[in-house]
Amino acid sequence: MNTQHNPLPQDPASLSGLQSQALAPADERIFLRNVFGWMTLGVLFSAGASAWMVSSSVRIATFANNTLLWLGLVVAELVMVIALSAAIQKLPLLIARILFLAYALLTGVTLSVLIAMAGSANVAMAFVGAAGVFGGMAAWGWTTKKSLEGWGPVLFGSLIGLLLANIVYMFTGGAVFNLILGCLGVFIFAGFTAWDMKKIRQLGNELQADSDQADRMAILGALALYLDFVNLFVSLLRIFASSR
């Protein structure tokens, strides 16, 4: 499970070069389209990488039996997220975009074994379910007038607990345990989706009408939402696979 989170800045106004001028409504819509455009492209890259892996039983078997290779890719993913989040202001915009898409490709590869084991029917149900949960919570997070600041500590604490529980699961296994972890993951990342959308709207309100700055923040917003969607998908896939 990709539990890296959260690339979005905690205080949008603290970003270097930001002014108090808010984006105009038209610019805000463009910013939102850029966020979802890059997020969708990331999902497509991951889907393509997974499909390419799953299309060959030799590739899947080789990857599944090579623990060091899998761990190496996971470490590479973590490094990419940290680099993208920490250096977004310094990296050339093109490099930031390439890092995001490379991360999406690697995620598709690392998830390919789970997808191959789950079966096409479960994958389809998990994808549709993740899209539904993600869409509903993203819409609510964008439109709600309620402050979600208090959600942050709860969500991050829950994420740490989920990560530790997954480490325990690696040694103990168990279908029921897997099902519980899947259900917890759905609730946690549904919450993250709403919280991230609220943060993204705040970014839109704080950003100056500067295309380069807005484009950089769009990549970070896309990364945050991409992580939410992928983890929702993986959590639902665990639920459906455990119910077989």
What does this structure look like?
The longest helix is centred in the C-terminal third of the chain and has 32 residues, at 175-206. The chain has eight helices and no strands. Helix content is 80%, strand content 0%. The protein has one domain (22-242). By secondary structure, the chain is mostly helical. It has helices at residues 25-54, 57-64, 67-86, 93-118, 120-143, 151-172, 175-206, 211-242.
Number of helices: 8
Report the order of strands and helices.
HHHHHHHH
Q: Helix content range of the residues, please?
A: over 70%
Q: Which structural class fits the helix and strand makeup?
A: mainly alpha
Number of strands: 0
Low-confidence stretches: 12-20
Give the domain tally: 1
Rg over C-alpha atoms, rounded to the nearest angstrom: 18 Å
How confident overall, as mean pLDDT?
85
The first-to-last residue Cα distance is 20 Å
SSE blueprint:
Elements: H1 25-54, H2 57-64, H3 67-86, H4 93-118, H5 120-143, H6 151-172, H7 175-206, H8 211-242
Summarize this entry quickly.
This protein is mainly α and 244 residues long. Helix content is 80%, strand content 0%. Helix 1 crosses helix 4.
Pick out its properties.
mainly alpha; 244 residues; 8 helices; single chain; 80% helix; globular
